[in-house]
Amino acid sequence: MLNLKFCPSCGKESLTFNGRKMHCASCAFVFYNNTAAAVAVVIKCGDEVMLTRRNQDPSHGKLDLAGGFIDFEETAENACRRELFEEMQIEVDESKLKYICSIPNTYPYKGILYHTMDLFFEYEVAEKFDVVLEEHEISDTIWIKKNEIDLNEIAFESQKLFFENTDYNKNNERP
């Protein structure tokens, strides 16, 4: 985690990091680098899913599922609703979100590798719709048939694993 040397508690140059926690030898300060929770929403219409194109790093220009980090004291379902509204002005009925699975991931950002637990949800819609993009984050959305998703174009490893290991990459319904 970068080159952090100074303890945020006592200010002394005695901070060490072992990959899981930071520890200060001077004042015994300990900070655990825990996994961050994030959501990814598969918006599904028939045999197609909506993917977004990232407009920022990491993985600028790659395809992504809508979603993001869960805020403090927020449920995963609330995060899905908030992220979809922030990114695309989509109003989501939380009761129609279906939890699918969780997959660990990493998110490299400005020199720090964040470990995440990505929670995948499905949101099924009756018909395709247009969105209002938050262009700082997303440059485009596309509807694509599940069996035509190119895993090389997917931004994050957890999402590649998701599409590889679920029936979303096949032309049939999930069991």
UniProtKB/TrEMBL annotation:
GO cellular component terms attached to this protein's record: cytosol
Gene Ontology molecular function: metal ion binding; NADH pyrophosphatase activity
| Residue ranges crossing the lipid bilayer per the database entry | none
Q: What keywords appear on the UniProt entry? A: Hydrolase, Magnesium, Metal-binding
Q: Does the keyword Secreted apply?
A: no
**Which Gene3D superfamilies would you find in this protein's record?**
Nucleoside Triphosphate Pyrophosphohydrolase (3.90.79.10)
For this protein, the record's CDD domains field holds: NUDIX_Hydrolase
Q: Which residues form the Nudix hydrolase domain?
A: 32-167
Q: Name one GO biological process term.
A: NADP+ catabolic process
InterPro entries referenced in this protein's UniProt entry, alphabetically: NAD-cap_RNA_hydrolase_NudC, NUDIX_hydrolase-like_dom_sf, NUDIX_hydrolase_dom
Tree of life domain:
Bacteria
Cofactor(s) needed, names only, are:
Mg(2+)
The coiled-coil regions, if any, are: none
Which Pfam family is one of this chain's hits?
Answer: NUDIX
Would you indicate the residue range of the signal peptide? none
Query: Which PANTHER family has this protein been placed in?
Result: ADP-RIBOSE PYROPHOSPHATASE-RELATED (PTHR42904:SF12), NUDIX HYDROLASE, NUDC SUBFAMILY (PTHR42904)
Record-given protein name: NUDIX domain-containing protein
* Source species of the chain: Elizabethkingia bruuniana
